[in-house]
Design a protein that fits this description.
mainly alpha; 6 helices; elongated; binds heme C
């Protein structure tokens, strides 16, 4: 029984790096766009709460922020070589300015970590400020690296 559970846990932890391998550029593009959409959904719900378009529920906000803090690393492993062509809005500058692009990703991840910490306090004001910073980080990268 214990061995079974252990095997399941190991299976889970090894599943993540494996997901970073894509069968082709098209699969990588779909993957990163999907994760971006999921990020958008959960950040959007936090924004709906801080803007009063949805009743504030501290538990839901904390769940959204924690989820964001987990998945925000995923899209960036999918900007693989050759995936600047096809059904993508990723600008080719990404592959010419990789360090700058990665820094923009890191900035967003740091802001999301702060949002996660703020959401754990349950303070709507703290969540509002932190969510605003995340929105800015998302936008900053899109302004430079996402074709309109
Ligand atoms: C470091 C750069 C970067 C950051 C940070 C970033 N994005 Fe993106 N995002 C991109 C790029 C590049 C694309 C275009 C991907 C493609 O079409 O292949 C994109 C695409 C998207 C899309 C469109 C996906 C689709 O279906 O085509 C959404 C929605 C999105 N991002 C939301 C977000 C949100 C929300 C955040 C912040 C939590 C965020 N992004 C942070 C670079 C970034």
């Amino acid at each position: 029984m214990t061995r079974l559970i252990l095997a399941a846990v190991i299976g889970l932890t090894t599943a993540l790096p494996a997901a970073a391998q894509f069968k082709n550029a098209e699969a990588a593009i779909k993957y990163r766009q999907s994760v971006m959409q999921v990020q958008n959904h959960h950040l959007g719900r936090i924004f709906a709460m801080v803007n009063g378009r949805m009743p504030f529920d501290a538990k839901v906000a904390a769940e959204d922020a924690a989820l964001l803090d987990t998945i925000d690393k995923l899209p960036f492993v999918a900007f693989i070589d050759g995936s600047d062509k096809g059904e993508t809005n990723a600008k080719s500058e990404i592959w010419k300015q990789r360090a700058r692009f990665d820094a923009a990703a890191l900035k967003m991840q740091e802001d999301v970590a702060k949002l996660n910490a703020a959401a754990k306090t349950g303070s709507l004001d703290a969540i509002k400020a932190a969510a605003g910073a995340v929105g800015q980080s998302c936008k900053a990268c899109h302004d430079d690296y996402q074709a309109k």
